[in-house]
Specification:
73 residues; 2 helices
């Protein structure tokens, strides 16, 4: 039971870290989109964020293969 609680603690910690990371990321996304709109580059902020999310998505698909080859450290 002790190991189970330790793993639950790690999962909660990881979830809180991702929540904080993406909360900051979304605030930054809004700021960048607003900045590009003010200088009349309409849509460029959304395109840059779309590309960034696309890279995140692709890295999630590639990460398991990479970890199998390299192994956890």
């Amino acid at each position: 039971m002790g190991k189970h609680r330790k793993n639950i603690g790690k999962v909660i910690y990881l979830g809180v870290c991702f929540m904080l990371l993406f909360s900051a990321f979304n605030a930054f996304q809004n700021m960048i989109s607003d900045m590009f709109d003010r200088v009349h580059y309409n849509g460029l902020g959304q395109i840059s964020v779309f590309v960034l999310y696309g890279v995140f998505g692709l890295s999630n698909l590639i990460a398991p293969t990479f970890l199998k080859k390299v192994g956890p450290r």
